Amino acid sequence: MAALAGVGLLLAGCGSNANPLNSSAGSSSSGSSGAQSSGSQSSGAGSGGASSTAGGSETSSGTGSTGAGQTSAGSTGTGQQPVVIGSANFTESELIADIYAAALKAAGVPVTTHLNIGAREVYLQAMHEGSINLLPEYTGGLLAYYDKTSTAHSPTDVYAALQKALPADLEVLKYSAAQDQDSVTVTKATADKYHLVSIGDLAPVAGQMTLGGSSEWQTRADGPIGMTKLYGVTFKDYKVLDPGGPLSVKGLQTGLVQATDIFTTNPAIEEDGFVVLKDPKNMFQAQNVVPLIAKSAATPKVTSVLDAVSAKLTTADLTDMQKTINDTKANVADVAGKWVSQNGLG
Fold first, then answer.
1. Domain that holds residue 90
2. Is the model's pTM score more than 0.90?
3. Could you give the number of structural domains in the chain?
4. Per residue in 9-34, pLDDT tens?
């Protein structure tokens, strides 16, 4: 209980983003988020962002506003309790949260957002504590959090297992075709030099290499531990970078690391000609985007809106929107709102 109370206090103290890996402090669903830094900050499908950030930014959208850690029904002036949307501390999570917010607002649902909360280990505590009641999540990463023994890998199997593993007060709505997975990625020069096609091809040479990734990924089953267990791959060293974002990209570009975890919707993969190594033994689970919601907030209207978003969202959409944000420094909420409008959802 002390840990949950601590999350509530941290959320209540929001307003600045202390995480140096997050380039978008002050993001909101109403179009007031700061521009993103240059580079390719992407998602945390599996890693969930850097765990150093417990705060975030809170704004309102709709008919009223609630303070972080509160969901007062009377605050909307209509008696309707607002949906309080959280996000992890990376661009893609903010983007999807803003898409949810824009679509719900367009449907007349009161919404507040509390973005940039931190890693999965932190924002799920906020969810259980009640400070937020809706999150964009990834099926495989969320399943691994609640059931570390699951061997499900396909989208349908992972989703079915996730539904069984969730606490009684939470549910996942329909998942999207959009996926964003962790990956073991190398430069084309490294792939060519060592004839690398799949993760297992690293086994003879990994002892000469440094692997990069987030601090969370370093200890997760789909990180270095899984590579050793499934593929016999053990690296010489591990360099803590960011969760699949600009520091990881820079690490590969400069040779600081020879392989790293880059999320598969990161536009830098195509732009820099990086090689994502194949995973024939399914170390990485399916990572479909899915709304995680408190059952108390899952009204028929809210569910209908979010299911409609999931039906439209694609992997290509996520990549393209992040490219726009990175290349033009576009406002995350503006990009989200444009997608909602273009897809007939607002």
1. 2-180+286-342
2. no
3. 2
4. 444 433 333 333 333 333 333 333 33
